[in-house]
Prior knowledge:
The chain is of the alpha/beta class.
Amino acid sequence: MKYRLAIVLPIYLVLFSCSYIGAYLLRFDFDLPDKMLALFWASLPLVIATKFLSCYISGEWRRTFRYVSFLDLIYLVSGSALAMGLIYLSNFFTTFTGGAIPRAVILIDFGLSVIAVGALRMSIRFYKEFFCSLLQKGNQKRTLIYGANLDSLAIMKAMESISSDFHVIGFVCDKIPRHERLIAGKPIFRTDKGWKTLAAVNDVQHLLIPSTIAGKEVRELYRNCSCTDIKTHIIPSVAELMGGRFRLAIRDVTISDLLRREPAQLDFDAIRGDISGRTILVTGAAGSIGSELCRQIIQLNPSKLILLDQSETGLFYIQQELIQGNWESDAEYIIADVVNEDAIRKVMVDHEPQLIFHAAAYKHVPLMEDHPQEAIRNNILGTKNLADLASKYNVESFVLISTDKAVRPTSVMGSTKLISEIYLQAKSTISKTRFVTVRFGNVLNSAGSVVPTFRKQIEQGGPVRVTHPDMERFFMTIPEAVKLVLQAETIGATGDILILDMGEQIKIVDLAKDMITLSGMNYPEDIDIEFTGIRPGEKLYEELLYDSEKNASKVHDKLFCASRQDIITMEMITENFQILEACVNGEKEKVRKTLADIVKQYVELELSATEKMNSAA
């Protein structure tokens, strides 16, 4: 600070002296009498001292010159007005050679001081933002920002504040009115004549897309720009930068960007109210959904977060991640299997969880077709064990993570999740614990899912293997799915099945083509797609609702609530569980057939209930 003042004070001394003598010259039409010249020299020390005092009081020298703003101008005017008032008052207490300082001189000096200091500040900002950037333009990439709103403007301002390889020449937007052509002096371009024309006429090299833009719009932009020489990039929004999880960095478009949807409007107060200060247990904490649940829950300040998983390596990785984020003191790590009744009982007794998120499950459809015994043991009996103990030890809420494959299941995995849903609904009728099921489709980039599989195949030079050209799936990013799970926990009543609005289904072959393009290659010239045929247990498309749930009420922007607890009795579910427990160690085919027969009963009961509803309507 002292080195800065050593430079600034002499400059202000010169400016204030010049503005003061300038005031005299303007007042007397540049014909200054000797008496007034003597008054100028006599009063100059006092005037300078008064102005320096007002600068100190108003913080003039503490404010940066590089980022001068309208607020700085207000402080400058206020400080100069204070100096003007003090100089005027000095006429009543001080006698100068030549008399009192003329009031017109004091007023003119006020205006000249504001202009002089304001010009100094603006000239420094002009030099930094325009002159220096002008020198760098030859090495920078001509860039457009997508959108014409406050978020886009904030991104441009943030980029201007750092040394960047990108030179923003303007904004691009399809919906801006024709009479609105400029934002902060930068032009707004329209795409009426096509992206090729826009790129050619304005020599555009790059397009920056805020990360808040929905995936459908990003896909359209990406495909339009792919036909030109414009390279597309994603840049964090201001909200994400303020949230602290992102820094101002431009990155390439990813498949998550292409499939991202409009962000859901969440009731964060309700979510925080259910999590903050409470003991939370997450099973499957090392998995894709479980680990993200832990990341988001621990930021809501629970009194304790218990991370339970049977994978030692997976639990180690999430532990290291939380340690690096300074969350370690709030977490407990337990290696255990949800099927192990003694281990889970010990967790209940030792830690007394108030809320359980049950994400532990075997999820890979083809593998579970080959291992139905393990699917039943982990997904069904593990859920029953955890739910029974949660009820016995008075856990307040229990949330089951389910899947769209539980709707009219054709696979072992989907069948086990359906039975788990039904058991929780039956249990909810006889327990004080609130049992809620959350059902959703595929999540992007989960371990072993289609996206990392395709990515590995592309890295190996192809081909990318797709089961069927008409195969469709719902997709959602992991963070969005988890946010909605947390929201569902605050909304659901006991026995409810909450279904996430997954949007439109995406063709897997289109996903493969997009990933090939994102990797910098072309289909089919560089990498081909090979169709391998539908695998055992797979459907061409997925469903999120049974027919009886089609009129499910919308309880949130992206959540539907369904309930089928009156279809299946507790006696039936108890009898079927006894059958499953008896056959779980048997032959694969027999186990698979037993599971299929039980699920067939449930689906037929659901169809009968639907027919009754339709006839009543």
